[in-house]
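so i finally got all the pieces together for this one. its two components total, 389 residues if u count the protein bits. some of the lines might not be protein, just check the labels. i wanna see the whole assembly predicted at once instead of chain by chain like last time, that was a mess tbh
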Amino acid sequence: MRTYLFAAAMCLLTGAAQAASTEADFKTALAAAEAAEQDAGALKNQWIPTEQALAAAKKAAAAGDFDAAVAQARQAEALAKASIAQAKEQQTAWKAGVIR
Amino acid sequence: MRISRAIAIAVAALVVAGAGPAAAAAAAAAADSIDPDADFKAFRDYYTKRFPDVPLNDFVNGPYSMDAELRKQWEAIDDFPPYDFAIDRGKQMFATPFKNGKTYGDCFPEKGIGIRQNYPYFDDKSGEVITLELALNRCREANGEAPYSYVKDEMASLTAYMAFTSRGKPFDIKIPNDPRALEAYQKGAEYFYARRGQLNFSCASCHVQNPGNHIRTEVLAPALGIVAAMPIYRSEWNGMGTMSRRLVTCNSQVRGVPLEPQDELYRDVEYYLTYMSNGLPVSGPGARP
């Protein structure tokens, strides 16, 4: 009996984890990604793959595939944050490469 | 005696310990100071020592100064230069009056002939770097004409003609003792050395650290003299391209979103690079693989 209860609970948990993403999830993920990309733009350091991931996210959402849309938006946010980190690091690190 | 020696050693150790941070701070301050003359000398020395067999003026020939086989191909191609059409077209455009009757020549010193070596320059009135491409479009707009695209076609033809009339003249870029000019110069240096794009490359990654080496099938050009052949016919582009096009392409190749052509930072990096090429002859328009 205890085993069955445990298995049922696991099924519920797994099912919850794999629940399909919604349009609201996508909008939240897209807003975060676009905000990060805007910050990268202010530093004049956007990356092409970020733009590609944003475009792919919007395309997937338009096709109703919100799982893919959310995944692409999260990828875009991660890339944008990496480009911001690069720009901030290079604000001082560039000096190490100067011919002297 | 032993005691006094021990004291002397201890004092020396304290002095050294104190000098460490002080020396580091001095080095950092030196790195932060803006000294175009010192930069120029170091830049020139780096390339001439690294490539002692390349005559100084040959650096303007970019990858052909680095690779004998590539040079042979270029010399064969140059019997019928692929940029000739651009020179002819630019000459015709240059002489054709605007709708108000004025010409490009009216916007430039020496009527625009033989002046390529003086661009870009720092304009103390507007406080910004003026490239030849920007000056041409401002000339058009001042005369009631629409600006051209900065990357190819008409702009490449006009700059090809202006470079052609300046061939052999040594670059003579001035960095006036004006904090705004020095800031523009420094921003250009920063843009040149800062890594960017998903590939995490700087301009210097290719053109300082790896000139003469291959990246895929291309031989990387040295940064010294790299601006001298602009604009260029590139086989890769199947046409002519300007300095703006080259910078935009560089950014894209490292998977960075390019800036707008003639963005302030692009003009600043052109200012920095052209200053580093002072004394080398204008060789544009050029041809590259």
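The first helix of chain A runs from residue 2 to 17.
Chain A has a mean pLDDT of 89.
anyway lmk what u think
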